[in-house]
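Support request from a user on the community tier.

User writes: "When I paste my structure tokens into the form, the page sometimes reloads and wipes my input. The last time it worked, I copied everything first. Here is what I submitted, just in case something in the input itself triggers the reload:"
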């Protein structure tokens, strides 16, 4: 992975010679540190040089393994194992940076946590995209290589500084052979440049270029553009009269933003134009094999919604009308396909049709939103007017038996207190029952209004 290279190059500038075993890797100790699990990995995996200092190696390991863990895909080990390894490499890097600050006064101070965060951020910029591009399985192999490289770096450091026992001499030879075989295999699998120079015949002294011929392209699969062209000129049926007309229908006019949609459907009812797009979508599916059923149904529902807004036709009644219009226009859509091929030397029209129908659909959507807002405002006004009448009627009913004072109902003062109290209670019960009945009736009518404008 590419993160942290600038950091390592800066570190290499200060490590011209292998002077300190705690900081500088000594290649002589590498064969002594290899194990069966780390024999096949390069000692400078994803680093600009095998002389990169140990502190830089541990920073790269901590930062990139943190990114791999945070992505959560292509994990080379369990998250618990990764957490332990990351903590170990972070601590080693921090200890070595503190040691470096004491022994090399000219070295720029570095904070381990900050550097690990930078490396992790750099890796996160490309790691998710790489996983998606090359697949989880391949990226898991790459992450495993990094994980093993970090183990080798840790073992190398421990053996070089006496914290771990060296590998036996016989095992060193065996593991070194495995490493060389693995590197040879990697080199053989790598892409080779073509040999473009070739001596020829008696003129072997003159080296002539050999032209590398391109591989023949795979035969193109036949598609709708390969269908035989109609012999006679295709006659496209006229638009004709829609299966249902209404004076309130919106008409396609100059307010349509798309020029191609405006030119195609100018002067036609908007809902009928959308229904034709449904027919065209059916033709595309039949000719090209694409699954356009969802788009086909969407155009029908949009046409039905337009009829509801313009004509106040319920959806259950509008959809059959839109489907009949699509059936009427289906032969026209099929003829438009053939006519386009004749006019454009066999080319097929899906891209042009998509531009046309996208333009008219966008205009229909914007118009539908305006209709919906207008209907909602009308519903709100009707509901407010109904509530106003209800409260007026309730107040009028109460005023028939009581007098009002400051908005409160007061019993007549011409009767005795007991009689007034009894009358007040009886009137209160009647008023509450009437109020409940009116509330129930209002709720019922509101539900009816909702069903009407849904």
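"...and here is what came back when it finally went through:"
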């Amino acid at each position: 992975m590419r993160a942290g290279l600038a950091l390592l190059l800066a570190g290499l500038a200060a490590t011209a010679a292998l002077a300190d075993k705690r900081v500088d890797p000594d290649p002589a100790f590498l064969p002594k540190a290899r194990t069966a699990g780390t024999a096949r990995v390069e000692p400078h995996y994803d680093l600009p040089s095998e002389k990169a200092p140990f502190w830089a190696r541990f920073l790269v390991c901590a930062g990139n393994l943190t990114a791999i863990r945070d992505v959560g895909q292509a994990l080379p080990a369990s998250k618990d194992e990764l957490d332990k390894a990351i903590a170990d490499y972070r601590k080693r890097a921090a200890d070595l940076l503190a040691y470096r600050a004491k022994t090399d006064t000219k070295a720029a101070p570095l904070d381990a946590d900050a550097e690990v965060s930078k490396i992790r951020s750099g890796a996160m910029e490309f790691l998710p995209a790489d996983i998606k591009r090359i697949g989880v399985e391949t990226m898991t192999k790459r992450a495993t290589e990094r994980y093993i490289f970090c183990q080798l770096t840790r073992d190398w450091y421990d053996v070089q500084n006496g914290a771990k026992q060296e590998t036996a001499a016989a095992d060193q030879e065996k593991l070194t052979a495995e490493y060389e075989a693995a590197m040879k295999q990697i080199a053989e699998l790598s892409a080779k440049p073509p040999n473009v120079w070739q001596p020829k015949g008696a003129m072997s002294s003159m080296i002539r270029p050999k032209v590398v011929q391109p591989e023949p392209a795979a035969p193109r699969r036949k598609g709708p553009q390969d269908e035989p062209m109609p012999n006679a000129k295709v006659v496209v049926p006229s638009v004709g009269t829609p299966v249902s007309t209404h004076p309130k229908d919106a008409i396609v006019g100059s307010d349509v933003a798309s020029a191609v949609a405006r030119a195609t459907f100018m002067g036609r009812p908007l809902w009928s134009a959308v229904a034709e797009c449904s027919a065209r979508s059916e033709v595309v599916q039949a000719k090209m094999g694409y699954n356009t059923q969802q788009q086909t149904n969407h155009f029908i529902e949009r046409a039905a919604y337009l009829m509801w807004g313009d004509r106040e036709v319920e959806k259950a009644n509008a959809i059959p009308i839109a489907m009949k219009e699509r059936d009427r226009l289906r032969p026209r859509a099929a003829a438009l396909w053939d006519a386009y091929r004749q006019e454009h030397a066999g080319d097929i029209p899906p891209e042009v049709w998509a531009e046309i129908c996208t333009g008219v659909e966008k205009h229909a959507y914007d118009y539908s939103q305006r209709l919906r807002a207008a209907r909602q405002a009308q519903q709100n006004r009707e509901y407010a007017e109904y509530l106003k009448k209800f409260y007026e009627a309730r107040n009028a009913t109460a005023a028939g038996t009581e007098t009002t004072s400051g908005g409160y109902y007061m019993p007549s003062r011409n009767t005795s207190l007991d009689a007034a109290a009894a009358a007040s209670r009886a009137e209160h019960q009647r008023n509450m029952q009437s109020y409940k009945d009116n509330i129930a009736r209002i709720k019922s009518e509101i539900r009816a209004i909702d069903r009407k404008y849904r």
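Agent notes: The reload is a front-end session timeout and is unrelated to the input. The chain has 14 helices and four strands. Residues 1-17, 196-208, 402-415 have pLDDT under 50 and may be disordered. Escalated to web team.
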